[in-house]
Amino acid sequence: MKCSWRKWAVQLFVIANLLPLLACSKSAAAEEIKFDSVKMSLKDKPFTVEVADTEEKRERGLMNRESMAADHGMLFVFDKADIYAFWMKDTKIPLDLVFLDASGKVVGIYSLKPNDMTQVSCEKKALFALELNAETAKALGLKTGDTVELPEKVLKRTSRSDEK
User: Fold this and answer.
1) Which distant-in-sequence residues (6+ apart) come within 8 Å of 152 by Cβ?
2) Into which CATH architecture does domain 36-155 fall?
3) pTM score of the predicted model
């Protein structure tokens, strides 16, 4: 009886000490970042895009998501036009990455593979980057040089002072 009581006491001790740690890590993982959404059109097709316009939102992006609706995406809004690098840390969805300048002109389109840590950047300065499900840009016929009409709500979030 003593042996089983000790075993039970040890298990209880371990559980009592691990529960707070598990609760902490679970609440941190469950902490959701709220993204605003906007409507926009790409080649006359309507899309709903989440807006990543803060450092915290840009860092999180589409990480840890299992899927994304075909007519959805994420628009990264930067503070100034520059060369930005993206990688797919903890991103499970294959994506198209479309870099846009301040006027909405497509300056680069790249394919990204899930969980690939290779950095992908555009050779030209961009103020925005749009992530779509893989093959969406091709299916739409979107190509470098095309212009994407950005929602006014998004344009108001940036000064657009660094257009070149």
Assistant:
1) none
2) Sandwich (2.60)
3) 0.78
